[in-house]
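User: Okay, second chain of the day. Same drill as before: sequence in, structure tokens out.
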Amino acid sequence: MKFLSGLFFVLGSATALAQPQGINEADMQKMMQQAQKMQACMANVDRSKLKELENKGRQLEAEINELCAAGKRDEALSTAMREGLKMSNDPAVKAMRECSDLMPDISSMMPKIPYPGGNGGEDKDESDGHICD
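Assistant: Same drill. Structure tokens below.
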């Protein structure tokens, strides 16, 4: 009997440690249900089209890096903007975006973790950067 009591204590402790603080069981259940909905949605997304877009993205990255290296910063930026817009309007990307919208914002359920040396970039204005930097 002592063995069973000890085993339940150890298993109970391990379960408590495995669950992040700040997320209760109801939130965890909701997250799991939403993840299943998202997974079912993603099953309908054309994988070959996504692979094609991934390859195109790699080629675009190489092209932009070449333009940056050649000092053609404006051309690199305009190329990135133009091609990025095309990609974001692709039906497969739109379908993925719709699927990801099924997942709740889990950041509101997670405890805040301080970022060493700052606020984790939360207030960083990305518009200050350049594609070549």
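Helices lie at 2-18, 25-42, 47-69, 73-88, 91-100.

User: Thanks, on to the next one.
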